[in-house]
Amino acid sequence: MKFFIDTANLNEIREAHDLGVLDGVTTNPSLMAKEGITGKDNILKHYKDICNIVDNNVSAEVIATDFAGMIREGEELAEIDEKIVVKIPMIKDGIKAIKYFSEKGIRTNCTLVFSAGQALLAAKAGASYVSPFIGRLDDVATDGLDLIEQIVTIYQNYGYETEILAASVRHPMHIVKCAELGADVMTGPLSAILALLKHPLTDVGLEKFLADYRKGNA
Ligand code: E4P
After folding, report:
1. CB of 7 closer than 6 A to ligand 1?
2. pLDDT digits (tens, 9 = 90+) for 110-136
3. Read out DSSP for the chain?
4. Looking at the whole model, is its pTM more than 0.90?
5. Predicted complex ipTM
6. Rounded to whole angstroms, how far apart are CA atoms 203 and 216?
7. Separation in Å, CA 33 to CA 38, 39, 53, 61, 89
8. Tell me, which fold does domain 2-216 have in CATH?
9. Is the CB of 111 within 6 Å of ligand 1?
10. Which residue from 28, 61, 111, 193 has its CB within 8 A of the most atoms of ligand 1, so it is best to mutate?
11. Which of 139, 81, 149, 94 shows the shortest CA–CA distance to 121?
12. Among candidates 103, 27, 41, 42, which has minimal Cα distance to 71?
């Protein structure tokens, strides 16, 4: 399973990268705004800064919602660095743009996916990644993990190569369950990834090992 971090915060991206388990970064316009990154030049530079930290897979989202605009923005984003994956919303022109980019060999991440039908369309258009937002489904009393299970089945039935990127991950059990279900990638906050580390028996066990060592080596 690939681990992506869902943030535009360079310090968090560095911390996750230094852990040695980071495979990529996802951003969105809200995350960029949260970091105070505004204006085209600053936004493009920020994506480059992220690319300079991580090894691959930096999702950068288009703002346009029409086909021509998405192509223009997507090509500009793809030129920043070969690590860029152009993130495109699940709308009609978005599907057309994904098809266009897949034929040009530019990787895409189809975002804002909330149903199996949308995921099927994204795969048919040739998206590199599809992003079902599981946390936001949970927020409206619909089990986001059920959607992951459905997409895994559908993609296996037809051998689609689109990778399932479980997005809007909120906590460590989302990650564990997505791994059980066979999601290819997860993206979430650094806190959810770091929470995987924790178990009280690990802490108690380590304390005991070290105390026993100190007794014998005082
Ligand atoms: C995915 O790429 C999105 O950026 C993200 O996972 C949305 O998560 P949220 O629902 O926590 O905002």
Report:
1. no
2. 999 999 999 999 999 999 999 999 999
3. -EEEEE---HHHHHHHHHHT---EEE--HHHHHHTT--SHHHHHHHHHHHHHHSSS-EEEE----SHHHHHHHHHHHHHH-TTEEEEEESSHHHHHHHHHHHHHT--EEEEEE-SHHHHHHHHHHT-SEEEEBHHHHHHTTS-HHHHHHHHHHHHHHHT---EEEEBS--SHHHHHHHHHHT-SEEEE-HHHHHHTT--HHHHHHHHHHHHHHHHHT-
4. yes
5. 0.97
6. 20
7. 7, 10, 20, 13, 18
8. TIM Barrel (3.20.20)
9. yes
10. 28
11. 94
12. 103
Amino acid at 53: I
- Residue 59 tokens read as 């999702």
What is the residue extent of each domain of the chain? 2-216
Separation of alpha carbons 157 and 178, rounded Å: 19
